[in-house]
Amino acid sequence: MAGHSKFKNIMHRKGAQDKKRSAQFSKLSREITVAAKMGMPDPDMNPRLRAAVNAAKAQSMPKDNIQRAIDKASKGDAENYEEVRYEGYGPGGVALIVEALTDNRNRTATNVRTAFAKNGGNLGASGAVSHGFERLGLIEYPASVGDEEKVLEAAIEAGADDVESDMGDGDENPGSHAIWCAPEALHEVAGELEKVLGEAEGVKLAWRPNIKVDADEGVASTLLKLVDTLDDDDDVQTVWGNYEISDEVMEKLG
Fold first, then answer.
1. Domains and their CATH numbers in the chain
2. I want to staple 187 with a disulfide (CB 3.0 to 4.6 A). Which of 47, 65, 86, 183 is the partner?
3. Does the predicted model carry a pTM greater than 0.90?
């Protein structure tokens, strides 16, 4: 297992989602409904639903909203959402993978293509960038659950492959632990970790880049606009990238 490289949130800098809580809730609801529709409506019997419910709780989503999203699936009046993946290049040749849940492929494709085109990027064909990423299971915890040693030990015991810890430096960056494992072992590893560290903030399948690109101030400025635009789309669930932005650049960008 690799050691403690400082964990940068490769999906996007923390805080971007905090701006738009209601939009975030609608995305979480959509994932809960889809998960409940695809399996049992009981989180204990449905690992994907359990992960979606845990993610919603981590964002302080009210219990009523969570139950409503589950009920929507079991009543059969939910829209038919399908999972779609888009791949492309942002400014500076940064590779991006966009995961969406949509009930209208044409609308989502148009919105994603427009976001890339207006922000220095271009949408590629399926498979254009995913060869530069690994499909892995990702379990996320706040730094407050324990130090690097405790989390590393728990991860090894649980059968994880890698841990990246950032112990944070105050309120602006409270820190986090990212625990990586084989995709097929995700729910088993998450279950073992829960016994030691409690409920995770996030349990999901993720795209981890094999090589990361350092984005300078010029690239980062446009890149973050692109990621924000994609994030603002109701259909887009997650944006993954192979970029890293230094703390110095983030401070300059404010």
1. 17-74 (1.10.10.200), 82-131+212-253 (3.30.70.980), 132-209 (3.30.70.980)
2. 47
3. no
